[in-house]
Amino acid sequence: MFLPEGAVKYEPMKMEFVNFEKFIESLHQDLFTGYCEFKMDESIVLLFDEGNLQRTFRLEEGTSYLLLPGEAFGECTNPSGEIRGVVLPPKVVDMMIQLLFCKPVHENLSTQFTDFRNLLRSLEGDNFSGYVEIQIRGEVHYLTLEKGGPRSAFYFSENHLVEGAEALEGIFADEEIGGATINIYPLRDVPLQEVFLKLSKGFLTTYSELKGPILTQQLWKKLSSCAEGQVGIDDLEFNLEDLPTDLRKQEEILVPLLQCELGFFTEELGEKTVRTLYFKLLEGVESPLKELFGGVIT
Length: 298
Hints:
The structure is a single chain. Helix 6 runs antiparallel to helix 7 (213-225), helix 6 runs parallel beside helix 8 (247-269) and helix 8 (247-269) crosses helix 9. This protein has 10 helices and 14 strands. It has helices at residues 20-29, 69-76, 90-100, 116-125, 165-178, 192-211, 213-225, 247-269, 271-281, 289-294, and strands at 7-14, 34-39, 43-49, 52-60, 63-67, 82-87, 106-110, 130-136, 139-146, 149-157, 160-163, 181-186, 232-234, 237-239. It folds into 3 domains: 7-90; 106-186; 192-294, no CATH class. The strands form 3 sheets. The protein has a 6-stranded antiparallel beta sheet with strand order 1-6-2-3-4-5, sandwiched between helices. It has a 6-stranded antiparallel beta sheet with strand order 7-12-8-9-10-11, with helices on both faces. The chain is α+β, with helices and mostly antiparallel strands and 298 residues long.
């Protein structure tokens, strides 16, 4: 993954002079959208949308490795490191999150050796669906392909985001002048709904075993109020059939729903019990969902 360069919010600062907890709180209060990069031998990146932490990951030689927030925060407090903040458009942050759902099939392809237009024609012939990340002279642009054809294009240059046909033209023009480095990410089958249901059902089953069916039905009425018309409601189970197919949109519905559920379970069972059970249920869940859902309880 490439880190796009937007407007600088924080010039690099030595962590020995930064109160990390207050720094994170200030980002939340400022509704910060962008990323903070903590740098020593490698980079730890904290990705924010409107002040809310969305992802934490390690960046090593251009390859991203998702981290739980606690893991990232532990590394970011090293006093010998530096941290900087970069403001990005929300759509660029969203694209970075989409890429973190995927695994690149090709990394750091150089147009010195790979013709960019021929590469796109090859992807079209393969009916490729996924993302193309393009770095040109330090600027990062994005293509989304569906069955080989362009679905969307983002051209991000000098803190200005252009979309659609104009974005494609800008990418092609810049690539012809300066060359490019390219990463290719196929869409990945991520069982987000299945993991959500595993967590939700796991809590309700445990509660039923502890409290019995009558109290469980009463609690279910409270839990159902969390859905607020976002998902269907069956007998002691949420119905996710009508969720959007886009993973990011699913996340924006299911994560707040789970947080609401956990609030009710905490009232009934206590914070310590809920934390213990939650991380027990997360055992066996693989990346990127382990980190996504692991960040729900910090």
